[in-house]
Amino acid sequence: MQLLVNIDVADLAIATDFYCRALGLTVGRRFGATAVELVGAPSPIYLLAKPAGGAATPGGTARDYARHWTPVHLDFVVDDLEAAVERARAAGAAVEQEITHHAWGDLALFADPFGHGFCLLAFRGRGYDELL
Known about the structure:
This protein is of the alpha/beta class. The chain has one domain: 2,3-Dihydroxybiphenyl 1,2-Dioxygenase, domain 1, CATH 3.10.180.10. It has helices at 12-23, 81-91, and strands at 5-9, 26-31, 35-39, 45-49, 74-77, 94-101, 105-111, 117-123. It is globular, with a radius of gyration of 16 Å.
């Protein structure tokens, strides 16, 4: 099984620049004016141009790119959390929680320019197995 990550964005150019600068991803392929494939993570990330206000599903609610909460978000595991936090901040990520320390590692919370939350984390020791 393969996992593909799709992220709706209102502006493909801004999103591509943000994710490449914030996370060190690179453009794999471009699909015209509607999608960009980013590579450099274990799964490819597809940025999909979807205008604000457009229906997210047939007859569904309209897309809103203000900061929003969703029960699904992306965690990016990094080796140097402090450097990754600074890179994300410099690229325009909104810091929602500075680095916190846990038994399994360290974590910082962000939002991208389109309101999508994501985390940067660095494991320590046995990672989540430290909780067992």
